[in-house]
Specification:
Shape: globular
Radius of gyration: 26 Å
Distance between the termini: 37 Å
Strand order of the largest sheet: 1-17-16-20-19-18-22
Strand content: 25-35%
Amino acid sequence: MSGSSGALGGFGLLPPLPQSWAARLGAAGALALAALLGAAVWRWAGRRAGSARLQRVGTVSGLFLYPVKSCGGVALQRAEVTALGLRSGALRDRFWLLITEDGHMVTARQEPQLVLISVSCENGYLTLKAPEMKELRVPVKLSRKNAVHNCRLFGLDIQGRDCGDEAAQWFATFLNTQSYRLVHFESQMAPRKSRDIFTTFRSKDKIAYPDCSPALILSEASLEDLNTRLEKKVKIQNFRPNIVVTGCNAYEEDSWNKIKIGDVEMKGTMACPRCILTTIDMETGIIDRKEPLETLKSYRLCDPSERHLYKSHPLFGWYYGIDKTGTLQVGDPVYKIVN
């Protein structure tokens, strides 16, 4: 006991305990003293660590990942959050991409009917379904004999392994257009760096085929506020968030900075600048090119000092980088980390 109190005294918590006192304490007294010393150590450690305070700001009401860029999303009850974004089993967020023959990305901005394709995964196969089409099954683990393409997304190069001629023909038939190739990002390939797209990201923020960020968060309240301004209501799917939050005010997600959900920690990096993809009717695949974009422009443009970053794009939702990987699920509290 005297050895323990002497060691703790070395931390400046308590002075060394005389041996004659320790001898008189007996077993009960020794246990009480141990509890006292343990509490003191805990308080000391908390002060030394500068522990942050958690402030609850909402609740997760939806989780989505989008395996094939611009195709339909997959709603989840639980997800793993990796450095490259959400994961559920073999499904990864935007790990598959449609490209032209010369490697440039193809999205719903050019082919709006891509949003009509639903995606699932079973027994090691990615399954794609589309109206009036036989389903397409693509193995998640591709043959090493399949070609690796050099792809181009927003001016940055990234690789992708070709998913085969059957997949290419399936997309050509459904879209009634030129030949495209479906490619898959594999774990040994080098991801893109978010910071090379927008300098607001950190050097550790990396992605496969998303536009620029590992995670996008949007609140139900923000969507509800937008819909009060629209004649034709839009759905959350128009904005393709990864994490949907309820129980907060509209646009409050813009100000959270650092958050914790489950055992995942994330850092806000920038607002999401919106484009014509939001104007696609998710049920018909018809692009409007006007709403909800025009309405968003009427009240969600950036401050003039940030125009170099966002230009004329309206802002809706917030991008987050991953500070600590882990798991989260629908119903989890969302905490703002307050230093």
